[in-house]
Amino acid sequence: MSNYAQRDLFGGAIVALLPSKLIDASDIRQVPDTQEVLLFPDSDISIILEILQRVDHPDHADAARFHFESLAHDNDALSSTVHQVNIVPNDRGDNTPSPVVLYGTQIVPKFNRATGDDVRILLALYRVEDKGIDLVLTMNVPMQNASGTSTEQAFNAAKENFDTAARSLRIEYFGLFA
Questions:
Q1: Cα–Cα distance between 136 and 5 in angstroms, integer?
Q2: C-alpha to C-alpha distance for 164 and 70, rounded to whole angstroms
Q3: Tens-digit pLDDT profile for residues 46-88
């Protein structure tokens, strides 16, 4: 875990173990107040934590699918496929909801090309029900794009980073969602 560091997000209201080499996108471009965007310096992989209004899906897996499909719509994806959805129990004894983790693929056109890039999406949904909030952590892992092809080994390393972040994410201050 020496490659990881606890990262304060939203001013420390949320913390997570993340790769220490990540760059805060707000240092190089404008990022909405409801998002934290982190970039890997050596790839096109990004991690986004977003505070969203709770969607009206009582089933948590359906809510995760809704956010995945909403992301596909925002990405103008040519297609999207959900491969797996499961709940990772939070057994730490804090009040952070257990994340609903979804793994999927989207074919996303980039740079005005007719063909799409194969982008693997890793998504963790934390439903803060009493505040009416869905906290969504996503990692976008381009597998094939204009700058080359990622290997399964690179994807597995990214997935390990995501799994560590999703399991370790902790809401320290629920007043953030007031």
A1: 20
A2: 24
A3: 999 999 999 999 999 999 999 999 999 999 999 999 999 999 9
Let me know if residue 178 belongs to a domain: no
pTM for the whole thing? Answer: 0.93
For residue 102, the domain's CATH number is: 3.40.1000.10
Helix intervals (H) in 39-151? 60-74
Beta bridge partners of 117: 108
Residue recorded with tokens 């096109």:
44
**Domain interval for residue 123:** 4-171
For 39-69, letters b (16+ CB in 10 Å) and e give: bbeeebbbbbbbbeebeeeeebbebbbbbbe
Torsion region of 165: left, alpha or beta (phi above 0 gives left; psi -120 to 50 gives alpha): alpha
DSSP 1-29: -TTEEEEEEGGGTEEEEEETT-EEGGGTS
Domain count, the chain: 1
For residue 74, the SS3 value is helix
